[in-house]
């Protein structure tokens, strides 16, 4: 057995080889730990970004839909109280609908007309959810009504 085919490291070479292998193992373990930590951090950031977008889209939806809902709910009081104020203002302004500093009649008339337009607009906003769609929160199952 004096002619070995393989040359195995002996002594100092063996210790250097072991330390190199151990260093490589430590480096791989460290990179695996970092990749696991990075995956957890990435998942957390993805969820945080999703929740920020969801909160923003929901807040914008509420802020836009709330005035339309108020106009729909107050349609009859706008007509009666606004109409009474418009009649009083009309006679107060010497039979003019508005003056340079008083736009009461155009305001109440436009609010009354807008209260009739509010219902279809609110239905559209609630079915299409444009802010959720704009911020990419619409799932693939819900996209069927936008394609048709």
TrEMBL record:
Transmembrane stretches, start-end: 47-70, 77-93, 105-125
Keywords: Membrane, Transmembrane, Transmembrane helix
Protein name, entry field: Bis protein
